[in-house]
């Protein structure tokens, strides 16, 4: 009955577009000011555009190998954001070979540094896949269906692509280059495209070269035109320690003069760069960009832009702001990206991504108010969980927070396990695994999972099943359990180089929790921050799958 009531409440909330306010990070101070970051989560390489109404802003970000890809976030004031859609489902629909390639985690590959633009009634997103070329998707409604990706330039090494449609209808494209594929970097090139942006009609021209200068690692360019000047805004100097450049020319093909317009200065906000500039209908200028916070990923900051000198000087005199007055807006609604999930709707919440292209055998929502995740069949020579594609994960939402989930593990055979995981180059998980007629509660830990290091196990408890099938011809046994993880900030991890720490706990009644295992040093993944969520897997290739049914997961304030 409780789940039915919650389901009805959830449907009502969905129909009335109820707003979600995070318990762990909300940048709107409620007094006309905001505190950075405006999104304290890993939206790497963000870009933003003003929508058709002039009152709506749309953001996207890198999603790499995760599915669905290209998150679409919406805001009315550049401070309060919500996830409304994804532009890409699986990578890459319509290409059977690539669709299959991304059915396994291709860590760090896929969708890099997209740009989003509004042009003549259409919203466009361009990105460079460093292995396959420059891709584009488009739609007339960012919250609706996006067309399948189209490869507009085939080849390796292309990254960080942005189109510019000029007043005369001509289209140009700027891009950076991935040294890992092209074996050169720190240059930006511009070429002319067909007016529809669908194919190149000119050869690339190097318009900026940062090699041998402080502007090394120039990449992530965004292309604009303002008052007769062509502008390229890009980061340089490296990701954690770099800065933001602006460069201008009277021709799209240069030469460009350049200036540093945003740098860390005396602030604690390192490497402020790579993002998007917007000019609002209220005559204001703002820049959304990321800050690399290592294990937490690349979080999103908002800084004002001052053009009075003829250059876009960002923040306060070129240094990032921490707290500042909000942009002018007709909206006063406080809303944040969703984190908690009661799993009471027939669709997966937009905070969730799979670790590779989705297969329906990974799992599906149920009509019973749960999210079911089937056990993934591990290879016979597996060492750790680095290559598991069916992990259902979301981004960390704050520096400190607590995650609690209620779940049931259903096992048809020995070796099937499931539970809660914090995933990165290092990972730790709290799971229940069937052994005979019992379940073992285990801490699974792996350091340098990406390098093939073996997983370690620690026994926490031996549990009797909470239920058993009696009439099924292949009976299963079930374990109902509450699992919890807490993430504490860098101060708590001072003994570990200032890294955030994760601690697990468990309960059989949801009221009294027992801590277990040693604190774990959270670590980022390949180009992404650490992500948390559910793992469900097994070691027997021949038996029927087991499954994990997640009843709910709730993200709340940090509890020591």
Write the layout of secondary structure elements.
Elements: H1 2-15, E1 33-35, E2 47-50, E3 57-60, E4 69-75, E5 81-88, H2 96-101, E6 112-119, E7 122-129, E8 133-139, E9 150-154, E10 158-165, E11 171-177, H3 179-182, E12 187-193, E13 205-209, E14 222-226, E15 229-236, E16 243-249, E17 257-262, E18 273-279, E19 285-292, E20 298-306, E21 313-314, E22 323-325, E23 353-354, E24 363-365, E25 371-374, E26 376-377, E27 392-395, E28 401-411, E29 417-423, E30 427-435, E31 438-446, E32 456-463, E33 467-468, E34 477-488, E35 501-507, E36 514-521, E37 531-538, E38 547-556
Parallel strand pairs: 26-37
Antiparallel strand pairs: 1-22, 2-3, 3-4, 4-5, 6-7, 7-8, 8-9, 10-11, 11-12, 12-13, 14-15, 15-16, 16-17, 18-19, 19-20, 20-21, 23-27, 24-25, 25-38, 27-37, 28-34, 28-38, 29-30, 29-37, 30-31, 31-32, 33-34, 34-35, 35-36
- Rg over alpha carbons: 24 Å
Principal-axes shape call: globular
Separation of the first and last Cα atoms:
33 Å
Low-confidence stretches: 1-17
Overall helicity: under 10%
Query: How many extended strands?
Result: 38
Task: Count every helix, treating DSSP H or I runs of 4 or more residues as helices.
Answer: 3
| β-sheet strand percentage | 35-45%
Main sheet characteristics: 8 strands, mixed
What structural class do you assign from the helix and strand content? mainly beta
If you average the pLDDT, what whole number results? 94
